[in-house]
Amino acid sequence: ARQVALSAVTGPGSTADGYAVPLLANVGGPHDVAAALEYGAEGIGLYRTEFLFLDRAEAPSAAEQEAAYLEVLDAFPGGRVIVRTLDAGADKPLAFLPPGEHEPNPALGERGVRLLRAHPEVLAAQLTALAAAAARSAGALRVMAPMVATAEEAAWFAAACDAAGLPAAGVMVEVPSAALRASDLAAHAGFLSVGTNDLTQYALAADRQLGALTGLQDAWQPAVLDLVALAAGGAAEHGRPCGVCGEAAADPALACVLVGLGATSLSMSAPALPAVRAALSRHTREQCVLAAGAARAATGPEDARAAARSHLPGLA
Ligand code: PEP
Ligand code: MG
């Protein structure tokens, strides 16, 4: 019966008092589009493009890239599709683009936008394919960069997108320095998108791939909540949206807290959408703000969760 009740809430994401929070899906390629549509995603908040480059010694052709981007874009003609440029390195090593030297600490290595700067031709080819797909589709394509740590990197990426004819490029906030100086990044970016998986890893200095450290890999850690609030606040200073696309957005209580911290959209793996949609619909924005404040006032993740839930009575 609960299953039925959750899926009964349909339509665009919104709090009980009508504050719109677009609910978007994370996808890894065209193969994930069906699920995103089935669960009612309003668009794509994170298109991980790594799949195109997996198991290959050479870059995929321009035509192959364009087709893979166009297929996802065309599935959301009325919505937005945020494509993340190649995020190779660390937990996503690619034979196609290895780091320049042996890395004792791959998570702290030449990954994401750092690797794209070392290989600007790879980014240029990807942006050209993205611009070609955007020109052929009614969908609103936006591009964002992974692993941005400084305003200078954000400016470099925005300039590369601009040169390719792609408007309002965004940057991910998944490194503490990016959250701490979010306003500096937002000065160059069309939007920010918080990646809580990596942001948690770097805030707690806990490798996201180590089972022994899962207790620290918890986005309810108040330090992570503080960083999300800083990211949203920095974006707001420039009138920029700030979404969350890490898996934290898939936890219904935490989704409400993220909205209370200032997140303007939430993106998650598609099956999580109905429960998050239902949780938001049962609480006002004010309740989300109170839940966020209570969570940040806690000193640990369990207390943060309990404190937030005391302001979210509509959760099961
Ligand atoms: C993140 O780090 O939270 C994120 C969304 O990106 P990925 O999980 O692909 O690293
Ligand atoms: Mg990440």
TrEMBL record:
Subcellular location: Cytoplasm
Signal peptide: none
Protein EC: 2.7.3.9
Record field: transmembrane: none
Enzyme class: transferase
Domain PEP-utilising enzyme C-terminal per the UniProt entry, residue ranges: 11-282
Cofactor dependency: Mg(2+)
Catalytic activity: L-histidyl-[protein] + phosphoenolpyruvate = N(pros)-phospho-L-histidyl-[protein] + pyruvate
Protein keywords: Cytoplasm, Kinase, Magnesium, Metal-binding, Phosphotransferase system, Sugar transport, Transferase, Transport
Primary subcellular site in the record, as a coarse category: cytoplasm
Function: General (non sugar-specific) component of the phosphoenolpyruvate-dependent sugar phosphotransferase system (sugar PTS). This major carbohydrate active-transport system catalyzes the phosphorylation of incoming sugar substrates concomitantly with their translocation across the cell membrane. Enzyme I transfers the phosphoryl group from phosphoenolpyruvate (PEP) to the phosphoryl carrier protein (HPr).
Protein family membership: Belongs to the PEP-utilizing enzyme family.
Name of the protein: Phosphoenolpyruvate-protein phosphotransferase
Species name: Streptosporangium longisporum
Shown segment, full-protein numbering: 241 to 556 of 560
